[in-house]
Amino acid sequence: MSDTPVKQQSTAAFYGQAVASFAVAMAATAIGIVRLDAGAWVRGFMAIAVLYLVTSAFTLAKVIRDRQEAGQLVSRVDQARLEKLLAEHDPFEKL
Q1: What radius of gyration, in Å, describes the C-alpha atoms of the chain?
Q2: Can you list the positions of beta strands (E) in the chain?
């Protein structure tokens, strides 16, 4: 059975860029909501809507990642079974 390690998909620089981008986007949105020429109720509604959107996006990303990882696990189990069958198979054995 092959024991191939799972490669890390992203570098530290990519991770840093993603975190920085998220921070800038959230800060810009917060500044925009605070400086919005509207009542406190409208600004509050906008703030709650943005928070809901962000949490929904994180949840969706996690669900997609979990599905992908589960598919990789099933694929690795199937590959291990196939390798075991091939290792045990003797083509010269009489049927």
Answers
A1: 25
A2: none
